[in-house]
Amino acid sequence: MTLFRYSAWDGTQRIEWFTPEEALDHIAGEILEGGDLRSIMNRLMRQGADMRDGRRMPGTRELLDRARERREDALLTHNLDGIFDDIQKQLDEILDRERGTVDQRLDEARGSQDRPRQGADPTRSPSAGEGGGAGDSPSNTPRRNGQPGASSGGGQQGGSPEEVEDSFRDMLRNIAQQRRNQLDALPPDAGGRIQQLRDYDFMDPEARERFDNLLKQLQQQMLENYFKGMQQSLQSMTQDDLKRSQQMIHDLNEMLRQRLNGQEPDFDQFMEKYGDAFPDGIEDLDQLMDYLQDQVSQMQSLMRSMSPDQRQELESLMEGLLRDNRIQLDLMEMAGLMQQLRPGQADGNEFPFIGDEPLSLQDALHLMGDLNDIASLERDLNRAIRMNDIDAIDPDEVARILGEDAGHIAEQLQQLMKMLEDAGIIRKNGREWELTPRAVRKVGERALKDIFGDVESSTTGDHTLGRRGVGVERMDDTRPYEWGDSFGLVDTNRTVLNAVTRGGPQTPVQITARDFEVNPTEALTSCATVIMLDMSYSMMHGGRFQAGRKIALALDTLIRSKFPKDELHVVAFSYLVATLKPQMLLDDYWIEYGGGTNYQQALSQARKILRKYHVGTRQIVFITDGEPTTYSQWSGVDPAPADPSLGYRRLPGALQETLREVVRCTKDEITINTFVLDSHPHMGDFLKTMAKINKGRVFFGSAGELGQYILLDYVNNKKTLIK
After folding, report:
1. How far apart are CA 649 and CA 593, in angstroms?
2. How far apart are CA 241 and CA 213, in angstroms?
3. What percent of the chain has pLDDT over 90?
4. Domain co-membership, 553 together with 676
5. Which of 44, 68, 231, 641 could form a disulfide with 595 if both were Cys (CB 3.0 to 4.6 A apart)?
6. Do 534 and 681 fall within a single domain?
7. Do residue 672 and residue 563 come from a single domain?
8. Cα angle at 216 between 241 and 306, to 5 degrees?
9. How many domains does the chain have?
10. What is the pLDDT of residues 538-565, one digit of tens each?
11. What percent of the chain has pLDDT over 70?
C-alpha cells in the first residue's frame, strides 16, 4: 500500500506552473480575445496566469506587491524621531558621571577652605604678624628659584605651608568651577556636544574612557556605512586606521577625478592596496562605483528622510566624529565626484516614516540600505517588463531582498520563457517576441476548436466525396485493375508480389492481367477564398473585430490541415484597404480604423486576388456590421474620409460604386457571402440588394454565432473538380 503525506504550503515545495502546451494554449486564448503577442507576454510576466485546473502562475506584479508591502511595513512601523536618543542617553550618562566628579571636587575644595588649620585657635583673630607683617620669620617666607621671597603688600615676605595649601585648593576649585561652567554651556544636540567634548579635559577617568569608546563606536558606524569590507578592522580602529582610511579615500577620489577627465585610472593597483575595504566580486571601476553609489545613496536617503533639525544635527555629529585627518571633507568630495560621474543616481530616496517604533542611527542606516534595495528592485522589475526581458532580473538578488519564495518566482518566470523558446513556441526578434510557425498553427487550431468544436469528430465540414475515381491525388491503398484505368496508376510492387504469390519464385516472373493492381485517386475539390474583414470604428466594439479575426485564423487552419489544395487570403478594410497574410492576424500594428467604410475598394482588391484562380470555387467571405460610407474614385484619388464628428455620414455615390463592384465580381463568377454582426434592421436592404445581384447569401447574427455560420458555409459551398 502506498502512503501519501500532505502538509501546508511552506514555500519550499516546487510545482511546475506550465507545460509548453499549456502555455501555448493560454497564449492562443489571449490572442484570440484580441491581444497581440507583446502585450500578452508583458501581461504573462506582470500578472501571471490562471490555469484551467485552478493552478496559478504568479508574475512580477506579485514580486512588486511584496516589495511595496515590505517598504510600507517598515514605514508604518518605524520613525526617525528618536534616531539620536541612544547617543544622547550615553552622553547623559557620561556627563552625569563627569558632573558628579566635578561637584565632588568643588565640595572638597569648599570643605577644606572652611575647616580650621591644624594647631590654630579658631576663636582667635589673626594678629598683625599672622597677617604677613614685618614680624614674620624669614624661614617662613616662600622662596622663588631657591632665593628668599621678596616682601609684598603689607610687608609679607612669603606664605606658610597652610597658605600654599589654600592656594592649591583655590586653584582646584577654580578648575572644577571652570569644568562645571563648560558642562553647563554644552549645546543640547548630540552633534554639538560631541564636538565640544572632544576638546574637553575630563576630570573623571572613567567618563573620559566611556566618551572615547562612544566616539570610536560612532566613527566605526559612519565609516562602515561607506566601507563595509573594513568592518573587522574598524572594530579595533586606531588613529593609524583612520589615517589609512583617509589615504584610501584620497586615492579613491583621485581615481574618480581621472575618470571624470576621461583618463583610465589604475584600478588593479588601488584594489591591491585597499581591496580589504570592499566586498568580494568587484572587478573594475564601474562595479566599484556601483557599490559606492549604493553606500552614498544610503546616507543621502537618511538625510532626505529627516526633518531639517535632524539633518543639521546629523551633519554636526559627522563633523564631530570625522573631523580628524580631513575624512569628512574627503567623503564629501567623493559624494560630489560620484554625482558628476552619475548625475542623479546617488541622490537617495526620501522615505516618509510614520510609525511609533524609534530607530537608532545604526539601525536607520541599515534600514535605508534595505529600502534603497527594494526601490532598486522595483525599478529593475518595471524595466524588465517594459523591455520584455525577464532575464534582466537576478533571482538571487530577489531572494536576498524579498525572501527565498520570491526568488523562486523570479527563477520560474525565467525558466518559463526559456521553456517556451526551447519548445519552439516563441523566439526573440531583437527586443520583441514573435510566435514560431508551429505556434501560429496551434493558435489557428485553438480558434477552430473554439468556433467549430472538434473537427476530427464532426461530420459537418467533411471535405471528402462518397466515391473514389480518377483524380490527381493518389491514395495509399490499392485495388485490382479495371478496364479504363490509367497505366500510370499501376502499383508495380503490389503487381509483382501478386505474380510471385500466384506462380511461385521463378525467373522471369510471369505476370497476368489479374495480377495488376492500381492506386485509386480521390476526387478533389478546390476553393479560393478571400476573407474581407471590416475594421471600421464600429467593428471595434462588442468583440466583432476579434470574432472576425478568429474566423480568419480558424479557416486558415482548416484549409492547411484538411484542404491543403485550397487557398485563403485576408483583406482588412476601413477607409483604406490592407492585404494580409493569415499569420498577420496575430498582430495589430496594421489596424487602421475610423474615417469611414470602403466596401468598393475592398471588393476590388479581393476580385484581383481571386482572378488568378481559374478552377474550383471562388468566394468572398464578407464580415461586417454596416453599410459602405466611402469609396475610391477610378482616378486613384480617394475622397476625403467621412468626418467622425458627424457620425460617419455616407458620401454620395458610396452605395452605387459598391454595387458596381458587386456586378464585376458576379461577372467573374465570384460568390459573395456576407455575415452581418449585431446590425440595425435598416441596414439589411442594401446587403440584400448585394445578395440579389450576386446570388450570394446574407447571414445576420451575433459575434458569438459568427464562426459556425461561416465554417458551415465554407465546407458546403465548394465545387467538385473531378467526378
Report:
1. 15
2. 15
3. 12
4. yes
5. 641
6. yes
7. yes
8. 115
9. 4
10. 888 877 888 888 888 888 887 777 777 7
11. 75
DSSP 70-118: HHHHHHHHEESTTTTHHHHHHHHHHHHHHHHHHHHHHHHHHHHHHSPPT
The answer as to whether 168 is a domain residue is no
Is residue 90 in a domain?
no
Handedness of CA 599, 600, 603, 609 (dihedral sign): negative
Q: Considering all CA atoms of the chain, what is the largest pairwise distance in Å, rounded to the nearest integer?
A: 174
Same domain, 492 and 533: no
pLDDT recorded at residue 19: 76
Residue of 440, 318, 298 lying closest to 375 (CA atoms) = 298
pLDDT of residue 132: 40
Q: Which residue has the higher pLDDT, 28 or 284?
A: 284
**608 pLDDT more than 50:** yes
Distance (Å, whole) CA 298 – CA 228 = 12
Residue 72 domain flag: yes
CB 529 within 8 A of CB 717: no
Judge residue 716's burial from the number of C-beta atoms within 10 Å of its C-beta, 0-12 exposed, 13-18 middle, 19 or more buried. Answer: exposed
Identify whether the C-beta of residue 450 lies closer than 8 Å to the C-beta of residue 550.
Answer: yes
Q: State the burial class of residue 255 (Cβ atoms within 10 Å of its Cβ: 0-12, 13-18, 19+).
A: buried
Give the pLDDT confidence of 497-523 residue by residue, as tens digits. 888 888 888 888 888 888 899 887 654
| Domain end point (choices 308, 333, 352) | 352
- Which pLDDT value is given to residue 504? 85
How far is residue 40's CA from residue 525's CA, in Å, rounded to a whole number?
A: 39
pLDDT tens profile 83-127:
888 888 999 999 999 999 888 888 877 765 555 554 444 444 443
Same domain? For 583 and 661 the reply is yes
Least Cα distance to 219 among 200, 202, 198 occurs for 198
Residue 620: the pLDDT is 92
From 522, 557, 580, give the residue that closes a domain.
Answer: 522
Query: Which of 402, 522, 507, 409 is closest to 470 using CA atoms?
Result: 522
Is 284 found in the same domain as 261? yes
**φ, ψ for residue 684, nearest 5 deg:** -75, -25
| DSSP-derived 3-state class of residue 237 | coil
Q: Looking at this protein, which amino acid is placed at residue 236?
A: S
Are 410 and 402 a contacting pair, CB within 8 Å? no
What local confidence, expressed as pLDDT, does residue 455 receive?
41
Render 451-464 in DSSP notation, one character per residue.
HH--TTT-STT---
49-50 and 567-573 strand pairing: unpaired
CB-based contacts of 645, cutoff 8 Å, min separation 6 = none
Are residues 509 and 529 both part of a single domain?
A: no
CATH number of the CATH domain containing 630: 3.40.50.410
Place of cell 543616481: 345
All cell numbers assigned to 461: 465540414
Q: What's the pTM value of the predicted model, to 2 decimals?
A: 0.54
Highest mean pLDDT: which range of 222-226, 439-443, 643-647: 439-443
Q: 346 and 246 in one domain?
A: yes
For residue range 153-189, what is the model confidence (pLDDT) as tens digits? 444 445 677 777 778 778 888 888 888 899 999 998 8
Domain for residue 186, yes or no?
Answer: no
User: By residue range, what is the domain housing residue 686?
Assistant: 525-720
Residues 6+ apart with CB under 8 A from 20: 419, 420, 423, 425
